[in-house]
Amino acid sequence: MHTTIGRTLWVFIALLGAATAQGAGMAQSLKPITAGGTAPELHLQNTDGEPVTTGDFRGKVVLINFWATWCPPCREEMPSLERLHQATRDQGVVILAPNVGEQLETVLGFAESLDPAPSFPLLLGAEFDTLEAWRVRGLPTTLVIAPDGSLAYKAEGGVEFDHPEVVRQLRELAGAPDR
Questions:
Q1: Strand 61-66 vs strand 93-100: parallel, antiparallel, or unpaired?
Q2: According to the model, what pLDDT value does residue 34 have?
Q3: Whole-angstrom distance, CA of residue 32 vs CA of residue 30
Q4: 153 within 8 A of 31, measured Cβ to Cβ
Q5: Backbone angles phi, psi at 13, to 5 degrees
Q6: Residue 166: band (very low, low, confident or very high) from pLDDT cuts 50, 70, 90
Q7: Per-residue DSSP letters for the chain?
Q8: Geometric angle at alpha carbon 14, from 89 and 164, rounded to 5°
C-alpha cells in the first residue's frame, strides 16, 4: 500500500475508533486474548531519544498503550495509567506508551500538562507499520504481554487503569500478591 494512502486510511480508522471508544465509556477490565501467540517486537525511542524494545522486559508483564494527544479517551485515561504505574511498578509490571504519529514537542507539552506527569516511558515513532503489526484499529488500544512473551489481554477504547479489576488482572499475570 502506498505510504500516503496507508497513513490517510490509518487516520480515518483511528478517528473512527476514537469516536466509537469515546461513546462507549471507560472499561473497567481488560479482555483476555485466547491463543494470543507471541507478541511482535516493539522497537521505538523514548522522549530522550533512547531505544526501547519490548524484548528488554522479557519475564515481566508489559502493558503497551497506543495513544495520541488528539484522542479524547487517550487523554482521559492517561492519569489512571500513571496511577496504575505507581501501584504496580515494583511488582513486575512495565508500562510503555507509544504515541501515534506526533512530534516530540507535542507529546512533551501534553505530558507536562498532566498532574502528575507520566513517569513511565512515552515512546515516539509508532507509524502505520507498527500499528499494523500490533493490529491496532483505533485509539486508544492497549495490549498486555505476559512474562513468557505471549499476548494476554487487549482493550480497545478508554480504560480505567487504576480500577481494582484491572490492577488485579495485571498483578495476577505478574505473579504478584493482590493488595
A1: parallel
A2: 87
A3: 6
A4: yes
A5: -65, -40
A6: very high
A7: --HHHHHHHHHHHHHHHHHHHHHH--BSSPEEPTT--BPPP-EEEETTS-EEEGGGGTTSEEEEEEB-TT-HHHHHHHHHHHHHHHHHTTTTEEEEEEEES--HHHHHHHHHHSSSPP-SPEEEEE-HHHHHHTT--SSSEEEEE-TTSBEEEEEES-B-TTSHHHHHHHHHHHTPPP-
A8: 30
Taking only the tens place, the pLDDT of each residue in 14-71 is 555 544 444 457 889 999 998 878 999 999 999 999 999 999 999 999 999 999 999 9
The answer to whether the beta carbons of residues 29 and 160 sit under 8 Å apart is no
The pLDDT tens digits of the residues spanning 70-126 come to 999 999 999 999 999 999 999 999 999 999 999 999 999 999 999 889 999 999 999
Question: In one letter, which amino acid is 12?
Answer: F
Q: Give pLDDT, residue 19.
A: 47
Residue from 104, 45, 95, 44 nearest 69 by CA: 104
Q: Which residue has the cell 475508533?
A: 17
Cell numbers standing for residue 9: 486510511
Q: What angle do CA 129, 45, 12 make, to 5 degrees?
A: 35
